[in-house]
């Protein structure tokens, strides 16, 4: 059995149950799922679309990963398409594997087609996402970004309206931008990929599913093939002495609203 943790990097735990259901539907036998949001004290965050609110969850994500690996979690997915704090989290993950939606979804999509369009909620998110994709060396595989002009919170509030917005911009991406595959570039855009794939006949990658399945696969590969994170060079973790002296992770884990789906 392996344990996979999904970190929903907001203080609002309202989507945790829905996320747990979605992930449980695609897991392999023997995978236990943990879905958590973050205890951010007095802060109330339902999304982190801007850089300022992202700054409030950066360290809590890293701290969550540190504490999760200490409790025996095998693999972790950070639930934001910005791949928030991914490198920092990996540095302190011990032997646990850490994945994130943008990297995972693009790895999958670029195995299925040459040119990918990314569908995002708000066009202003594009610049930061482009920076992340450039770092991954995948900019040349992006056909376009298309925004549906919606808030992150609304993506699960009105499924009919969200689907219509998605299908409209995906159609334009195929016809006008030459998209051969689609990545839904928000982890709150879950539950739409199957219908869209059937309608348009091209790969449509749900980035939530992509991050979870990558984490699950790597968690199993860790056990079967001993694929472990490097701790050499730039991948070195802070020393035990430093962590003890600094008290960096001295406070309890900020993981909150935990839902556990036992392995079957």
UniProtKB/TrEMBL annotation:
What is the official name of this protein in its record?
Allantoin racemase
A GO term for molecular function: amino-acid racemase activity
What Pfam family is a match for this entry? Answer: Asp_Glu_race
Family of this protein: Belongs to the HyuE racemase family.
Q: What is the lineage of its organism?
A: Bacteria, Pseudomonadati, Pseudomonadota, Alphaproteobacteria, Acetobacterales
Identify the domain of life: Bacteria
Cite the InterPro entries for this sequence.
Answer: Asp/Glu/hydantoin_racemase, Iso_Racemase_Enz_sf
